[in-house]
Amino acid sequence: MSGADYRLYGVPGWGSVLTEAMLVQCGVPFVFENVEGFDAQGEERQRLIALNPLGQIPTLVLPDGTVMTESAAIALLLAERHPDAGLAPPPDAPERAAFLRLLVWLVANVYPTFTYGDYPERWVTETPGALGAAMVEHRKTLWLWLETQLGDGPWVLGERFSALDIYIGAMVHWRPRRDWFAEHCPKLSSVAGRVLALPNLAPVWRRNFTEAP
């Protein structure tokens, strides 16, 4: 590894895939630190907490040693540093407002359904399964709303590719999963299909999802 590399702490198939795909899209060298088991007490969790006291992934260490967390913040930083990657519309682009709105919407609305739905026993002591099931159903309503925001273009923002498409390409692999999207959200499913078919990102999807192309 050179001193100029990014260092990404994550787990295959988890939320770190978002940052991994963005780094590949930017064409920058990075090292992937697999901290599988970070959500249980042990060495991997301690490695992660030393950088991110919340113990969350993705955690990205920049080439200068600065620690970045929160996938949306990382997306915006990478978009600023590597504008040719097309992760975000420039400030004067007509799609900029929609990009910012939907990026924050994804992390503020959809992401918490995983936080509370994947491990409901952490948050309630009675009928945790009911909370998990409710989160999946709520997530479906959120995706159905996003479907109504898409036009006829190939990407979330129409003709302009962005980090939003990377989010969709990754998140269709998580519950309610790709078959549900194909049936209920055909526009989002089509966006995901195009992202998953991008040659430069194909290795990322294969490393993270067994059902990827």
Strand proportion: 5-15%
Name the structural class. Answer: alpha+beta
Unreliable sequence segments: none
The number of strands is 4
Domain GST C-terminal: 92-213
Protein name: Glutathione S-transferase family protein
Domain GST N-terminal: 3-86
Pfam families: GST_C_2, GST_N_2
Question: In words, what does this structure look like?
Answer:
- The chain is α+β, with helices and mostly antiparallel strands and 213 residues long.
- Helix content is 51%, strand content 8%.
- It has helices at 16-26, 43-49, 71-81, 96-117, 128-149, 163-171, 177-184, 186-196, 202-208, and strands at 6-10, 30-34, 59-61, 67-69.
- Helix 1 (16-26) packs parallel to helix 3.
- The longest helix is centred in the middle third of the chain and has 22 residues, at 96-117.
- The chain is globular, with a radius of gyration of 17 Å.
- The chain starts with 5 loop residues before the first strand and ends in a 5-residue tail after the last helix.
- The model has no long low-confidence stretch (mean pLDDT 96).
- Residues 92-213 form the GST C-terminal domain.
